[in-house]
Write a structure and sequence with these properties.
The protein is of the alpha+beta class. It is built from 6 helices and 25 strands. It has 3 domains: about 1-115, Roll (DNA Polymerase III, Chain A, domain 2), CATH 3.10.150.10; about 125-250, DNA Polymerase III, Chain A, domain 2, CATH 3.10.150.10; about 255-375, DNA Polymerase III, subunit A, domain 2 (DNA Polymerase III, Chain A, domain 2, Roll), CATH 3.10.150. It has helices at about 5-15, 70-80, 130-140, 200-210, 270-280, 330-340; strands at about 1-5, 30-40, 40-45, 50-60, 60-65, 65-70, 85-90, 95-100, 105-110, 125-130, 155-165, 165-170, 175-185, 195-200, 220-225, 230-235, 240-245, 265-270, 290-295, 300-305, 310-315, 325-330, 345-350, 355-360, 370-375. The strands form 4 sheets. An 8-stranded antiparallel beta sheet has the order 6-2-3-4-17-16-15-10. An 8-stranded antiparallel beta sheet has the order 14-11-12-13-25-24-23-18. The protein is about 15% helix and about 40% strand.
């Protein structure tokens, strides 16, 4: 194998592949990227057996072939090269691979391409998902995904919900729940579908969608498919595949409060509420970040205190003349929502100090909903 290409073209794809490979793997080939010379492109593949990414970049193919190279080394090396420089990669005796840029020449031990794991093929039947809607759903729900990503834990994944006229996603870590959905057309979807996607797959899919390019004047689209064990997302030349999670997602609708259950509903300026919470959070316990919300006499007061730091109080004006209402929340949980809601205003809905509260975005637009439910902290 011998190929020539522009350094930046390969580095862009290696940067995406970084999130797939497990640096602590005990299987050497899983720390490698598979490079295959094909026509006028080089194909790149990485996998940790549960998650894989296949992509490519334009190149001049001087000799066909394949090789595997340690991904971390290749990524770090190309990061130091001038972006527009011409680079060549050639296989040599044994498993050695030679990288040349100008007068610089590096030789490293690669691996046997035959030992790289076989990756599942994309099914023929695919549905077309609007790229913007899918990216929005991921961004709005990732905050509630637990880092516990075991195959049997629903908390380590997002539930993707597809219908003929809507796309939605919901996640929960047991203490909070995020829901985002919007009405949109899903071409090619044969039947309604729900699938639980691992956190690591969602993080890497978000990176892939962030660099996806759509033709001028057109909305981007993502091909979606699934088989018995895998879920596939294809955006342009990039194909992300992950194992399905076997856990059953809970009946999340039971957690969402309906309008009749909301006793108090108030609208706040997102920036003002966020700034108030950040200041008071400096005095909250480091473990829980617990603060108190107090509605009383035309204002929302936020308070916190600890034995070591002392105490703090700040307020945001609001129209309220009812009985004094106090409830505790994690400041960080509220700030997570305020950081991704992309709205100048947010609505806080309260039932009582023992029940869940809901943050939502007013005036989001017809057919869209973004809801965030958090559990109170009892003191």
């Amino acid at each position: 194998m011998e190929v020539k290409f522009r350094a930046q073209d390969l580095f862009s794809e290696l940067a995406l592949a970084q999130g797939i490979v497990d640096r602590k793997t005990t299987i050497p080939v899983l720390g490698h990227v598979l490079i295959e010379a094909d026509k006028d492109r080089i194909k790149l593949s990485v996998s940790d057996l549960d998650l894989s990414l296949r992509t490519s970049c334009q190149a001049e193919i001087l000799a066909a072939g394949s090789a595997t190279v340690p991904l971390q080394w290749l990524h770090d090396y190309f990061r130091l090269l001038p972006p527009d420089s011409e680079v060549s990669i050639a296989g040599s005796a044994g498993d050695a691979v030679e990288v040349t840029q100008g007068s610089a020449r590096s030789r490293l031990r690669g691996g046997d391409a035959m030992k790289f794991p076989d990756l599942p093929a994309l099914p023929q039947d695919t549905a077309s998902l609007p790229l913007a809607a899918l990216a929005n759903a991921i961004r709005k729900t990732m905050i509630s995904v637990s880092a516990d990503s075991g195959a049997y834990s629903y908390q380590g994944g997002c539930l993707l919900m597809l219908a003929h006229n809507s796309l939605g996603m919901v996640s929960t870590d047991g203490h909070r729940l995020s829901l985002y959905s919007e009405e949109t057309s899903l071409a090619g979807l044969s039947e309604e579908s729900r699938c639980l996607i691992p956190r690591k797959a969602m993080l890497n899919l978000e990176k892939v969608l962030a660099v996806a390019a759509a033709p001028d004047g057109e909305e981007g689209a993502v091909d979606f498919a699934q088989d018995g064990n895998h879920i596939f997302f294809r955006s342009g030349r990039r194909l992300l595949t992950c194992q399905k999670m076997t856990a059953a997602f809970p009946e999340y609708a039971r957690v969402l409060p309906n309008e009749g259950e909301i006793a108090i509903s108030r609208e706040f300026a997102t920036k003002d509420l966020a700034a108030t919470l950040r200041r008071v959070d400096q005095f909250a316990p480091q473990e829980s970040h617990a603060v108190q919300f107090v509605l009383d006499d035309g204002e929302l007061r936020v308070t916190a205190k600890t034995a070591l730091s002392g105490e703090s109080e700040a307020s945001v004006p609001t129209e309220y003349d009812g009985e004094r209402f106090q409830v505790g929340f994690s400041a960080r949980s509220v700030l997570d929502f305020l950081g991704i809601c992309e709205s100048e205003k947010v609505t806080l809905g309260l039932k009582d100090p023992e029940s869940v509260a809901e943050l939502s975005v007013p005036g989001l637009g017809e057919g869209k909903q973004h809801r965030y439910v958090i559990m109170p902290i009892r003191q």
